[in-house]
Every structure is written in C-alpha cells, then in structure tokens.
Write a structure and sequence with these properties.
- The chain has a six-stranded parallel β-sheet with strand order 2-1-3-4-5-11, covered by helices on one side. A six-stranded mixed β-sheet has the order 7-6-8-9-10-12, with helices on both faces.
- Helix 10 links the parallel strand 6 and strand 7.
- The protein has 13 helices and twelve strands.
- Helix 5 packs across helix 13 and helix 11 packs across helix 12.
- It is elongated.
- The protein has three domains: about 55 residues, lambda repressor-like DNA-binding domains (434 Repressor (Amino-terminal Domain), Orthogonal Bundle), CATH 1.10.260.40; about 130 residues, Response regulator (Rossmann fold); about 130 residues, Response regulator (Rossmann fold), CATH 3.40.50.2300.
- With about 350 residues, the protein is α/β, with parallel strands linked by helices.
C-alpha cells in the first residue's frame, strides 16, 4: 500500500497525506481533511516508509545510547536497570533506542562526533562506565559542544564542564556505608575495591578514609585490597586478608560482583556472617537479597536515573542540569554489632 493510493482514496494530494503523516508544523491542512486522511490510513492499514518519513522531517525519531564498554554490555546489572527507565520514556514518546557499543574498538573506529555528523540519531545518552577514561570524556564533551548536539552524560562524570548529567556521589556513598559499619562497633574494616585504575575507586577509597578519620580510626593500608570486579580474585583476596589480619571484623566491598565471593570466602575460612564478620557492599544488585545471609548494600535508584536522563534529553527545558541522586543503605542479615 502506497502513499499515492491513500491520497486517491481520501481525495487529496500526496502532499496533503505527507503533511498529515509527518504532523508538519504550520501546515494549512484543515482538521476535517486531517481526520479523513487518518481514517483512510487506518482502513487501508497503511504503514509509512520510515526512511522516507525521516528524510522528509529531517529527524530520525530515535535516541542513541552510547556505551564505551570493555565487557558484554548486558551482563552489567546497572546498565540493564537504567536502560529499563530509558526505554519506558522513549516508548511513551514513540521514539526508538539505538545502541552504540563496541568496547575499545569503538574509541578508535567510530568516534561520537562521527555518529552526530552522520545524523544517525536525534540525541545521545552517553553511559560512561568505570572503565571510561577522563581523556575520552573530555574529548567527546568538547566535540559535542562544538557541534551543538543534544546529549546527556549518565552514571560517571568527575569534571566541571557545563553539561547535562545524571549520576550519584560515590565518595559520599562509600562514607555512608563505612559509617554504618562503624556505628555497629567495627573498627577493623577491610576494603576490597575494584580496579586501582578506575577513578571511581579513588572516590570510594576517599569516602572510606574520610569515615575512618571522622570517627578517629587510623586507616590500615594492609587491609585495603583490589579485586578488579572479579569473582575469583575477590574470593582469593578475602581469604588472604582474613589470614593475614585476624583482627578484621567487617568488609566493605566496592563492587556488587564481589559480594557473593567475599561471603563464600568468609564461610570457607571457618567464620560466620554476621556473627564473626559483617559484610556491606557498594552497590546493590538483584542477587544480594537471595544470598545466605542476604547482604547489606547501598542501592541506587537505577530505574529513576535512566528515566530522568531520557526525559532531560528529550524535553530539555532550558539550561544545563546536573542531578545527583540520593542512594539508600539497605540493611540486611550480613551486618551486625561487634560481639
């Protein structure tokens, strides 16, 4: 079924049908004629050619989600949850979501400004990850601002550029988690962070040390370790820390991947959770409530963050916005007072 056939049966010109389909602003098509065309389209079950429609309107009716990531995207819990919020907003607005991701090759083979120049999407949500370098972030901000392109940065950003941004405060979140353990009487709190190369790790360590300082506890470099967000490495590091530092009474973990591994390592060391060792994790995931015992964790408003970022991109509203979401400490069975 073609646009020409719709025009014939509705008794109007092709131009009129095109104006109605594209909902062109300022067109002089009367309401009566518009309704007749729409009724004809419904009767004929006419589906406009999307490519032609986009060429006519100058818009793609799609939003890009750009993820510079070194691992399979949909194994990452935070990304999946935030995409759910993004998707609901776009569905409501009748927009498509286009994913751009290819790990390290994406940095070299398809820079963000190329996507913009090819007019592949009408706007970009840029989901920085813990592996995204600040150099890369600074470059895309500079390029997109020069191109005057609509974008929102989501998840990680540590700079001061005037951009639209949605995220959380890692340092304060770590401070909150460690302070809770201290309030339970813990003084020997081991920290297992992710990778030493990630900026987020430095923020978590800063929050960890600030909490210790505020409670007049001297930090111990011997009980700070890194496990690269790896299950096996987190297990081994937990065993080593417990063996070399028997005075440890609790763990604060800087990555949800390390929670189950730490819990198993404590049990395999002949200790009980939380009777002997308390465990708190940053951040929460769907697996934490299902463990034995369920693990205390700091929970992000993942869905709301994704939803807000999408709304910020689509609706604008004038002026740049930086929204830092509050997180929630969810207390579960893995933490208790020192005995």
């Amino acid at each position: 079924m073609t646009l020409k056939k719709v025009a014939e049966l509705a008794g109007v010109s092709h131009t009129t049908v095109s104006l109605v389909i594209n909902n062109a602003e300022g067109s002089r098509v009367s309401q009566r004629t518009r309704e007749r065309v729409l009724e004809t389209i419904r009767k004929l079950d006419y589906n406009p050619n999307l490519t032609a429609k986009r060429l006519a309107s100058g818009k793609t009716n799609s939003i890009g989600l750009f993820i510079p990531f070194e691992m399979p995207v949909f194994r990452n819990y935070t990304i999946i949850e935030m995409v759910a919020g993004i998707q609901d907003v776009l569905n409501e607005m009748g927009l498509d979501l286009v994913l751009f991701s290819g790990g390290r090759k994406l940095y070299r083979d398809r820079p963000i400004n190329q996507i913009v120049r090819q007019k592949a999407v009408d706007g970009l949500l840029i989901f920085n990850t813990r592996y995204t370098t600040q150099h890369f972030v600074n470059n895309y901000i500079k390029n997109l601002n020069e191109l005057k392109f609509n974008f929102v940065t989501l998840h990680y950003y540590w700079g001061n550029a005037d951009i639209n941004y949605v995220g959380v405060d890692y340092e304060n979140d770590a401070y909150k988690g460690v302070s809770y353990l201290i309030s339970l009487g813990h003084r020997k709190i081991a920290l297992i962070a992710g990778t030493s190369k990630a900026t987020v790790t430095s923020k978590i360590i800063k929050g960890y040390k600030r909490a210790l300082k505020d409670y007049k506890i001297s930090p111990d470099a011997n009980i700070i370790s890194y496990a690269d967000y790896d299950y096996q490495m987190a297990y081994e590091k937990t065993r080593i820390l417990l063996k070399n530092n028997p005075s440890i009474t609790s763990f604060f973990l800087g990555g949800y991947e390390m929670g189950p591994a730490c819990l198993k390592a404590v049990k395999d060391s002949g200790l009980s959770v939380p009777e002997d060792i308390s465990i708190s994790c940053y951040i929460d995931s769907e697996i934490m409530p299902l463990l034995d015992p369920p693990i205390t964790a700091i929970k992000w408003p993942y869905y709301d963050m994704g939803k807000t970022a999408a709304e910020m991109l689509i609706r604008g509203g004038g002026g740049r916005k930086r929204l830092v979401f509050e997180t929630e400490l969810v207390v579960r069975g893995s933490t208790s007072k020192v005995r």
